[in-house]
Each structure stands twice: as structure tokens, then as C-alpha cells.
L-asparaginase 2 (Acetobacter fabarum), 343 residues
Amino acid sequence: HTAGVEAPTATVHKQDALPRVLVLATGGTISGKINTRSAIGYDAGAVTGQQLIAGVPGVEKLAQLQVEQISNIASQNMNSQVWFKLAERIRKAFANNEADAIVITHGTDTMEETAFFLDNVIGDSRPVILTGAMRPSTAISADGPANMYEAVKVAADPQARGRGVLVVLNDVIQSARGVSKMHTTELQTFHSPNLGPSGYVDPASVRFITAAQPRQLLALPADHTLAQVQIVYAHADMDAQQIDDAVKDGARGIVIAGMGDGNVSDTALAGIERARKAGVIVVRSTRVGSGMTNRNVEVDDDRYGLIASMDLNPQKARILLQLLLANGKTKPEDIQLAFQAGL
Ligand SMILES: NC(=O)CC[C@H](N)C(=O)O
């Protein structure tokens, strides 16, 4: 030891210098258990968030973790009540400076919907990352631990700030607006067909390849309810039955999962015209899975007062319309502008 020279690394790796990551567990395959690779008949949501963290060696070197169980459900049962619970918990954690970032574990089926909902209502620049798994925790080559590790790594990285809600799985970072589950079983199920990936996690780095996208911040409805918005899936031989039924049911909005560039049959278009006359907001999206749904191409949106979903798939268009209605937006022109605000 040389007098007067301090070891330069002495304070660098102090435990309390690590970012504080709050893990909110909701369930899904990442919490699932079964003994076979096929994962047939497994129970999504059998493992708690706390057990999940225990199975990720080295994660404690990335961040100081605190785990809370918000729900323990397969994400086909995800619903707006859990969304409100998540949103309120995240807002409180940031407002009280309890955490520097949030990681949410979630089933993959509706991960894009939860991510997109939160992206529209959380205005903080601190990272919010969703992750999950395609194989249950007890399967051979379970992907959950690696995904959890990478999610925490991105959450703890200052580059992730100001980018809204992100989804991290299988080495890829994707935006809440762009990401969609596109394969029933593959590990690389998540893609962003219209916006592309935001970045990658590799053993050496967290690497963003895009600039942060613009975002709009919408208010959470105080009564924690969202308007009824139904999705109608278009197909050859399409009639107007489901559209008329949605109007009769009291839907305030209908999202069409249209053919091609958001098209419907002439019969269904007549149903859409009736829906508009009844004051129902109609958004045209597409069942195709990729590509923009553009205004006034084969359907005269101006004439009928329709909204084109642009890059948003039907399930995300539904959430955005629900949030816009909750924020008092009812004019098609205003709703159209809000659909384009995140592009
Ligand atoms: N891979 C998964 O997470 C699918 C399991 C379940 N359907 C869910 O979404 O929670």
C-alpha cells in the first residue's frame, strides 16, 4: 500500500450503487411449470416472482431487486383491472422514488397489449421493461432465466431511459408500439413488423439501433373503466352481422381486423355506415399482420368518418381507442391524429 494513493476501484462496485429495479410479476409461461420439453398441459403461473428471481444467477450483480406479485395469471386472462393495478403501482414507485426502473414478468400471449397500454399512460423517463418466456421454467432450455437477466440488464442501462415501455425477449429489445407476438411457439416469437427492433442485448452490451420514438401521454380514467370496443375479424363471405350486433350491444367503438389494407365487403361496409350513424367510432386495421392501414385507399374514410389504424394491429388499435374515448376524444379527426402521434 502506497501512502496517499487510494485504490481507484474502491467505491465503484459498492452494492448500494446498483440501480434499484422493482420487479412486478403477473404470471405467464415464465412462471409456468412442467417436466417436458413440449410444454403441453402446463400451468402458466405456478411459480412466484420471488422464485423466478432465485433462478437467475448473476442478476443480483446487475441491480438491487425487489419483487412484488401483482397477479399470477396466464396472460389470455389479462384484463384492464390488472392494467390499472400495474399502472398505479408504477406511478407510485416512480413518484416516491422507490425504483430506478421496472421489470414486469408477463405471459407472452397479450404482452404487447399490456406493454402498449402502459406506454400510453406512464409518462416517466425511467425504464419499464416487460419480459416473459416461451418455455416453462422446468422445460429443457427454458428461456425465462436468460430473458429475465436481459430484461434487468436493459432496465439498469441508462440508454433505456426515455424510450417508453420496452419488451425484451431472446436478445431483442422492441418498443411497445411496434412489438407483436407472431409465432405460436418459437422462442423468437416477438417481431416489430412495422417499426423494426429497437436494439439488442448481447453478452457484452445493450445496443439500441433506433432513436426514441415520439409518444403521447393519456390520462388514466379515474373510475378505472374502459369503454366497450369490439374487434370484428374480416373474411371472404363477410356479412354485417357482427358489426350490427356490436352496435346493438352498446359498443362505443368497433375495430375492424380488415382484409389487406383494412378492407371489408360491401355488405359489411353498409353495416359500418349504420354503426357510424348510430355514433359508434370505427377504426380500420388489418388482419394481415404487417404493414400500415392507410387512409382513403380502397375505403373512403373521409366519406364515412372512419379512422385508419396506421401501424397499429387490431388489438392495439382497440386499446388506443379505449384510452382516447376515456380522455374525451370523440371526433374522428382527433382520434386519427392521435393514432398517428406515435409515428
Ligand atoms: N408463452 C407464454 O407465455 C404463453 C402462456 C400463456 N398463454 C400466457 O400468455 O401467459
